[in-house]
Amino acid sequence: MNSRFAYWLAAVLLLAAAWLRIANLTTLPGGVHAEEITDIRVTERIRLGTIEVFYDLQSTEGEGREGLYHTGTALVTAFIGNGPLGYHLISVWASLLTLAVVYALVMRLYGPLAGITALALLVFNLPFILAGRMVSREILLPGLVAGVMLVLARGLSVYREPHPTLPLNTVFAVLGLMLGAGFYLHPIHFFILLFAILFIILRLSSRRNLRLPEQSLPYLRFSLVVLIIIVMPYLVSSIRLPELSGIQRLWGGYSLTEHSLPGSILNSLGGLIFLGDSNPAHNLAGRPLIDLFSGMVLIIGVLIAARDARQSRHALPLLATVCLLPAALLSPDSPDFQRMLPLLPLIALYVGLGVQSIYQSIPSRLGKVAGWVAIIGLLAFNVQWSVRDLFETWPNQAAMATTFNTRIGLLARELDRTAANVPTLICDTPIEGSGLNATDQLLLMMNRKAFTPRYADCGTGLVFINGGEGQQIAFPRLQSYERLPDFSRVWLQQGRVEVDPDAPPDSLIRLNAASALADQLGRFTTTAPIAYAPEGRQGQEGVIPPPIRFGGNLTFAGYEPQPEGAYQPGGVVTVITWWRVDGPLPPDLRFFTHILSDPAAIVTQNDSISVDVTALQPRDVFAQITFVPLPLTLPDGVYTLSIGAAQSMTGARLPVLDETGQRRGDRLFIGSITVQR
């Protein structure tokens, strides 16, 4: 195979690689998994202006993350938007660039056939394809390994070029840049730097290249200066924040016991050609990293490189393999294909070397034809194997749908299509701490960022947009709709559950409740008596009809009367109040519900809110469901219910206003309950 034919064949393979990594990019997989969410959150922090060497992953105490990959993603999303496409483009580009660098490296070291073989292996390697479709900083590691090897081979004369395209000062500047920038990518870069240093020492001490030190030392010093300049912020941050530093995480990531160490190594080696990574985020469960025949050729390539280790073109990949093996083999979850990504260029290199050596050892012309038939057959097998698994088998795995939150991803695409024209309420339950709930994940997966949904915990609140004049209600989590209380369920049953093959089941309800809502609020004028608190009556006794204005652009529309009968101590009183939005609300708005033994004595209370008031707009009506537990020691008697609104930051209550705008206190009385043992 001549170089020109290999060049055009490589171009065809790169086009095939681009198709495998771009086809259905925003829909396959259907969502994002936990590690992708972490990387997206770091990206969003950078977009907001937070620039750091180590980003503290607050959901995991004491764990940091370098930000080079995320900075690149932030730059891309600044131009094309922070949706699924923008988040994934860096990984696609890095994957394709890695393929080009691997081809250039192997072809220069061993010849065109070896280069094409190595390229084809990676083009149709399923774990590498999946990595190129994920939001993952690890996708940059194979390219970094191959790039460092290529620059070392070019700068230290491992191969000869009759017409060098780059002067040596540029080559060594690129070397220093890559070795420095790698620290801001991943802790595994310590291993990459190690093999680069060892190979430089090996080349400079070689007796067969007596003129090499004189030619290369000035350029190597230049590379060292570039490396030191780039790495200084990293070193300073590592000293200031040792718990977040890469070396700390690198040390902690390989904490295997003497009993688990052999098993980890055996599992990792076995994952190459037998039983692979079972994590759906990295692989189709159980599929090996490469096929059995390629594994046999890989062994041949390793043996040939070891036999001729005195030659620099073989010593370079061998040193890289020895230094990078711990990252792949010593994993508590072995086989872990994500940790094996830095080894993929080397695996492809050895397979290419093995194929090249086997082909050259065939003496007869007929044997060489048979060799080509075998190579083409192996390529065809890997093409159909990977294409079928990528587009048919892997997407239909139940574990994949769970890992990638496919339900939320499908709902995100449906809202991208409909939310611009249909007002949307998202029902979800907030979670404690710094983690993301289903709604946060939904918004991350959406391309449309300009729409204005309302948010509510529909178990304790419900929003009727524009007075109930038509809306869709989205449920990111399957159990959200199934576990709603009777109050919310009665209202939602007036709507229609959307049945759409492109949307997850039971995820969208279309509801037009304007008429029913108007009837409900109208009944409150006669069925739900309201009274000003004593301090706001100003000589006016008796009941007053809703609606009643509050300060802060809020109107009290009424409440659901308490059921007949007595409560027992230790029971729970459910208070359902209705509110209308007349303008921007205080962002820290909270509703208080008090149970009083007399107008000034609170026996129990609950302060809460179940909607995101910052998203509400004028004419929105919402219901607030508050559960007030009764003390076990509460004496028998009749107790008054009092409600109102306040700002949580200052504790200031919103004033109650009459029809003339005059202040009438800061709370309302809405009936009473009886407690009886």
Write up this protein:
α20 (438-445) links the parallel β3 and β4. This protein has 24 helices and 18 strands. It has three domains: 3-248 and 260-400, no CATH class; 411-512; 523-675, Sandwich (Immunoglobulin-like). The radius of gyration is 33 Å and the shape is elongated. α1 packs parallel to α5, α4 (84-110) packs parallel to α16 (344-361) and α5 (112-123) crosses α16. By secondary structure, it is of the alpha+beta class. Helices cover 49% and strands 14% of the residues. The chain has a six-stranded antiparallel β-sheet with strand order 5-15-12-11-10-17, covered by helices on one side. A five-stranded mixed β-sheet has the order 4-3-6-8-7, with no helix packed on it. The model has no long low-confidence stretch (mean pLDDT 90).
